[in-house]
Design brief:
This protein has 181 residues and is α+β, with helices and mostly antiparallel strands. The protein has three helices and nine strands, in the order H-E-E-E-H-E-E-E-E-H-E-E. The strands form two sheets. Strands 3, 4, 5, 8 and 9 form a five-stranded antiparallel β-sheet that branches.
């Protein structure tokens, strides 16, 4: 009889041990899952492409007879991330506004929405890490320049870039928007 009681106690102790072991394994598995999720988020945050406005090159516009017709501006974006920006499209446009002020806030149209301002885009390209790409040329006429110098005109350049990183489709499509006066 004592052996039956001892076996029953041993069984209960065994069940308690199994329950605690199962709980510990579950806690450990949850911690490992959480650690893997944090590692994935960290990897994406530190290793993704990061496209930003870099510069604008300015050139002269000339007609077929060689006469100066104005200037052209070409916004340039750069991938500052360590991996390529894939399927990138750079859009740019110039918004001409009355030149009563020179503040950035006044240069922004009401309810500014960069995609709505896109005039022309270029084909999709890959921007390598540290690489840059320019948009199409934005023309400024001689009259535009004269009006800018006379404070009659502000030209706001809007640049909008859409691209994917190497983690796509796990991550969403990325966007960068910039406006300069």
């Amino acid at each position: 009889m004592w052996s039956v009681i001892a076996a029953g106690i041993a069984g209960i102790v065994g069940l308690i041990f199994i329950k605690r072991s199962t709980d510990a394994a579950s806690i450990s598995a949850n911690a490992a899952q959480k650690s893997a999720e944090i590692s994935e988020k960290t990897l994406i945050a530190t290793q993704r492409a990061f496209v930003m406005f870099n510069a604008a090159t300015v050139g002269t516009g000339v007609d077929s007879s060689g006469t100066l017709t104005g200037f052209v501006i070409r916004p340039v974006v750069k991938n500052a991330g360590p991996t390529p920006a894939l399927n990138a499209t750079v859009h740019a446009t110039a918004v001409r506004l009355p030149g009563r002020t020179r503040t950035m806030a006044d240069a922004m149209p009401p309810n500014h929405d960069p995609p709505a301002l896109i005039a022309v885009g270029q084909s999709r390209v890959t921007i390598p890490p540290g690489g840059d790409v320019g948009s199409h040329l934005i023309p400024l006429t001689n009259q535009d320049i004269a009006d800018i110098l006379a404070n009659k005109l502000i030209v706001a350049i809007h640049v909008f870039v859409e691209y994917e990183d190497v983690f796509f489709p796990t991550t969403p499509q990325r966007y960068t928007a910039w406006c300069g006066v």
